[in-house]
Design goal:
Immunoglobulin-like, four-stranded antiparallel beta sheet, globular
């Protein structure tokens, strides 16, 4: 008969598990398999990969280049806009006052002759009927004359009428090519009218009974002349103050100016 320990029972060992090749389990301390043990093909989790900042760096460099280019363009615009267009007006003739005849004084002496009072020609706004000589690009030179102004022109086409509350204004121009370069342009593109409030209006496509339009583009050799009407649509109550006209579809530096009222 086997002897039993005191108390009649053997002490119970806690359940342990020994991993292959691992250290022997200690009494009273349960052992667990290493991570992934017992699951075929299972690998321990990998640490996340570091994200690359290359894209952010490229975007920052491109943004900086764009800002530099924008600043340079703004500087060029500011410099080019610092010198305004050359507005050409008529020059009044010199005013010369005739010299007074010699006068005899009370003592019988002849008084000296007064000097003539001469004033130089002053810049005056050109009137309707006046001619201004305008310069364009590459030696272009054209004499422009405002020959007629119709402040309330009559539409010649029932399908092209001014909007309610507006009216047509027709201005007839005569163009004479005085330079050696051929003039080729659409005169309507270079004209604007300005009212007494400073509001300006560009030309519109319309036909009126008060004159024949330029019919689009004009080509003039040196010494040639053309005449035509350009039409504007303005509010009924607008009081037009002046007309501005420039060669090269309005992009030339010189702008002629005529008073309309």
């Amino acid at each position: 008969m086997t002897e039993q320990p005191p108390g009649g029972q053997y002490p119970q060992q806690p359940y342990t598990h020994q991993a292959p090749g691992g250290p022997p389990p200690q009494y009273g301390q349960p052992q667990y398999p290493p991570p992934g043990y017992g699951y075929p093909g299972q690998q321990p989790p990998q640490p996340p990969k570091k994200k690359s900042n290359t894209g952010l760096i490229v975007l920052a460099v491109i943004g900086g280049i764009c800002l530099v280019l924008f600043a340079g363009c703004a500087a060029l615009v500011a410099l080019s806009g610092s010198s305004g267009p050359d507005v050409v007006t008529a020059t009044a003739p010199a005013d010369t006052t005739a010299a007074k005849p010699p006068q005899q004084t009370d003592d019988g002496q002849t008084g000296g002759q007064d000097q003539a009072d001469t004033k130089g020609g002053a810049q005056q706004p050109a009137q309707v009927g006046g001619t201004l000589s305008l310069k364009g690009f590459e030696g272009l030179q054209v004499d422009v004359t405002v020959t007629k102004v119709e402040l309330k022109a009559t539409p010649a086409n029932d399908f092209l009428k001014p909007k309610a509350g507006n009216r047509f204004v027709a201005i007839e121009l005569t163009l004479a090519n005085k330079g050696a370069k051929t003039y080729e342009d659409s005169p309507s593109n270079g004209a604007v009218v300005i009212d007494d409030q400073g509001q300006q209006y560009r030309t519109t496509f319309a036909e009126v009974k008060e004159g024949q339009a330029f019919q689009g583009s004009v080509t003039m050799s040196s010494g040639d002349t053309r005449k035509g009407v350009i039409v504007f649509e303005v509010p009924e109550g607008a009081k037009l103050a002046k007309l501005q006209f420039a060669l090269n579809s309005g992009f030339a530096d010189q702008k002629g100016e005529w008073v309309l009222s």
